[in-house]
Amino acid sequence: MAKAESIVSFDQVSFEYSPTRPILDEVDFSIRQGRKITLMGQNGAGKSTIFALIAGLLKSDMGKVNIGYGLTIAMARQVILREEFELTVRDFFQRCFAQKVYNIDPKIDEVLEVVNLHAPHDKLIKTFSGGQQARLLLASALIQNPDLLLLDEPTNNLDKAGIAHLRQFLVDYKKTVIVISHDAEFLNAFTDGVLYLDVHTWKVEQYTGNYFDVAEQILARIERENRKNAQLAKKIQENKEKANYFADKGGRMRLLAKRMRDKAEEMEEEKVDVRKEDKAIRPFTIPRQEGLQGEIVTISSFTAMNKKHKPTTREANILLRKGDHLLLKGPNGIGKSTLLESIVRRSSKGITVGKDVKIGYYRQDFSTLNFDDTVYQSLISVTPDKDEEYMRSVAAGFLINSEVIRTKIGNLSEGQKGLVAFAHLIFEKPGLLILDEPTNHMNFRHIPIIAEALNKYEGAMILVSHVPEFVEKIRIDRVIDLEE
């Protein structure tokens, strides 16, 4: 295949899930061999849908998705499927191939080494942490040795070391890759082009350059378009005022007035549609449970995994009262999510949660939500007094419009599920807020607003996050490093 050859192209491609939910409208773009492309767009815009169209999992309604002859494609999804939880590592990788691969174990060891994960091949998928599952998803694509690698939010759940390892892998990677991610620093290390899916026009804009270069290009273009429209608007207003003046004069002046109105209409048509930037969610507050008094959480000991991957109990002396924020730190696989889960279930021997304390739990896999419910059913079930007007007002603040609210939770993008989960917390009014990687899948524009909401939360809070830029924005009163 020639270096400059296009290996994937969209030719006037349109796709919609329903007449009220269009995703793509006559989209054109092409990807050349060896490129490293970022796919950007707002939560729910349809980025994962583009991946599914490229991988042949979906068919376009109109137009054509052209794939180079003999091109092999592998996609690392955002999340492990629920039906995959009971598989062993060996069976999980075997499912990556249409036919049985004999002597697959050496291949598994090779790709696990690439993603910096060491795991027995008979270990169940469900026993891995979220970060370890992210590495397994990446490895499941790499084991296929594809010509085109599609990575959907590959840094989610990864610790600092995991992100650095993946970043270097992509810098050195010789084949073609398209990445969906909201991590700007990560993307800028290897990106040489950007595809931007506009959620408002359902078009894809194609740019050349690294991530930060493209962000500047987009901003400059918007400024130019706004400036041009402002100049045209001024001229249009002047022509209309003159037309009205001459129209009152009668005679040949009326003909001049008509020409001026025609000119104003021509200038109206010259106005360009300025690309609407991604919307951010509205600032919000998570109310705390009323009547909270004294110690909300007492931690005298906790259990984490040691370097030999064996559970070890450690002593602690931490009390959380109203307004206290605790950060749990540690690398992937050390047991952060397991510890959070035990606190929620009130089953941890060394950790006591007040008897009457209501716990609000943001779980990274969103399994606290019923995926068979519509968003409306999910939210109204926790809304005080079933106040629909209040529920819809809160939902709108999280960009949950009339179309999204009728959608089943299971059919939402991962980012949209996260926004629904935050809306739940507002209605639940917890006394203890437990958050496991709350910025995963989130548009970067939402993250400062989420951080501000957590800063203002007046109950006790326990947070797990591998995103330093997010943690830095939050007031942290206590830290438990599970690795120390």
Explain what the structure shows.
The chain is of the alpha/beta class. Among the domains are: 6-72 and 146-215, Rossmann fold (3-Layer(aba) Sandwich), CATH 3.40.50; 297-481, P-loop containing nucleotide triphosphate hydrolases (Rossmann fold, 3-Layer(aba) Sandwich), CATH 3.40.50. Helix content is 34%, strand content 22%. The chain has helices spanning 47-54, 89-94, 105-114, 130-142, 160-172, 184-188, 211-247, 252-270, 336-344, 375-380, 388-397, 414-428, 447-456, 468-471; strands spanning 6-18, 21-32, 36-41, 62-67, 73-76, 148-152, 176-180, 193-197, 204-208, 297-305, 311-320, 325-329, 351-353, 359-362, 432-436, 460-464, 478-481. The strands form four sheets. It has a six-stranded mixed beta sheet, sandwiched between helices. Strands 14-15-16-12-17 form a five-stranded parallel beta sheet, with helices on both faces. A three-stranded antiparallel beta sheet has the order 2-1-4, covered by helices on one side. It starts with 5 loop residues before the first strand and ends with a strand. The mean pLDDT is 88.
Characteristics of this structure?
alpha/beta, Rossmann fold
What's the total count of β strands? Answer: 17
Going by helix content, strand content and strand pairing, the class is alpha/beta
Name of the CATH superfamily of the domain at 297-481: P-loop containing nucleotide triphosphate hydrolases
Q: What is the average per-residue confidence, as pLDDT, rounded to a whole number?
A: 88
Strand order of the main beta sheet, please? 5-6-7-3-8-9
CATH topology of the domain at 297-481: Rossmann fold
